Model the fold of this input.
Amino acid sequence: MAEPTAVDASVPRITLDGVKLVYRGKARESVAVERVDMTVMANSVVSVVGPSGCGKSSLLKVISKVLRPSEGTVAVDGVEAEAADLTGRLSFMFQQPLLLPWRTALDNVLLPLQITHRRRVGEHRAHAVDVLTRVGLGHALDRHPHEMSGGMRQRVALARALVTRPEILLMDEPFGAVDEITRESLQELLLQIWGTDRTTIVLVTHQVEEAVLLSDRVVVMSEGPGTVLRTVEIDLPRPRDAEVRRDPRFLELTSTLRDLLHPRSPQPRRAAIDVGGVR
Amino acid sequence: MSARPWLLAAGLIVVWEALVQLLDVPLYLIPAPSAIAGSLWSDRAYLLANTPTTLFETWAGFLLALAIGIGLAIPVALTRFGEEAVMPIIVATQSVPKTALAPVFVVWFGFGFAPKIVMAAALAFFPIVVNLARGLRAVEPEIVQYMTTLGATRRDVFLRLRLPAALPYLFSAMKVAISLSTVGAIVGEFIGASSGLGYVILRAINNYDTAVMFAALLLVSLLGVLSYGVITQLEKRALSWQPESAAASV
Done:
């Protein structure tokens, strides 16, 4: 497999231009996302935050070509997504690990390789073991999902996402379903991994701290139909670790984002309904 | 396994023996367990000679049911035509009392193994279709979507996701099916046969030889238990990944 091309961080990797997404139901249409412009620089981490139902997850589906935008264009490395072959270049991680229960950790991680490489899986076995070791599961290669904790399963899912050496990693609330302590250790793991791999990451989250900790840029979306309210540059120095949370600038940035998500005016009631944190 | 079921069975046999002896029940009505054991021994050659026939018909019918069941379940689970057109017909066939078709099967397939195997399969295929179709659909749509983003074809999704996900359903259906195909083989032998335990049972009844009949019945049950055991063993191997509790509850 080709190594990810070293791209200067000032080059856009993903560009969304006037993306509108309409879901056509039987009776009516609903607009999920309205005119979204967004640029994700190569090898950077961009988080998308916003209230539930603002179309955050839909944006990831548009980037990965699961959904086609009703209007506007998506381009990856300057090539319109419609024409670009993203197979193997792009990985997904979700809130649920979505592991196959009959497969061991190692066999779950091998799944994407089996689908993309067919016969030559044997060659990649050692690499899969490496990736599992990196996420701290070198000791649990042969365990089945039901023999693992929620945090371990999510680590397997992360290893499965990384095993194809993706250029782009799309994460949909990847740490949303685990407890706080597990979440923090997974966040730190992701910081470490990004530190060495420099993958381009688009992270959908409802957690303001998570967005600030992990990202270079945070896109704040409005209530559905979602539009981009504002883009906030996260100018905290890298490499980062959990200590960044104590940085005064961290607090400043998180409060800026909170204010954007809970505006005190002009519509305090509507905005206060759900910031996505309620579950 | 605990000793309790064995103790209870032994106790019931003792009570049965005692009642038959005390009440002086005639042999042709209800034979005492000792009489059944006696006939098992004295007629062992006759009984054993007729056992393979029934065993063969049961398993051949079961395998035929498995092939038909798998062949029907896949389109029923995965295509709209199968779900909306084929499935209702399969369900409708279940209202036909299939054992009543045994004489027709003789007309169609003669007096050899064929009508017995067809009867066994006719009784056994339904649970396989229903359960397997349910299992093939019992996958989270998110996983299907995830695999699709990886570039998986429908074939990948079927072989790597749907089929393994459906295996537990298939095995529980197979356990029901093997019992039904035993019944089918016996019913088939009742109608027109010159060998097999069903034939032995029918002939013994005609001669009022109830002890032999019960002996044959015992062998049929034994066959059923053994066949069931074979499938349970296969299941344990195939589903070794399952947590203990889940495997035991299926």
Q: What stands out?
A: Chain A touches chain B through 23 residues (CB under 8 Å). The first strand of chain A starts at residue 12 and ends at 24. Residues 10 and 47 of chain A are 17 Å apart (CA to CA).
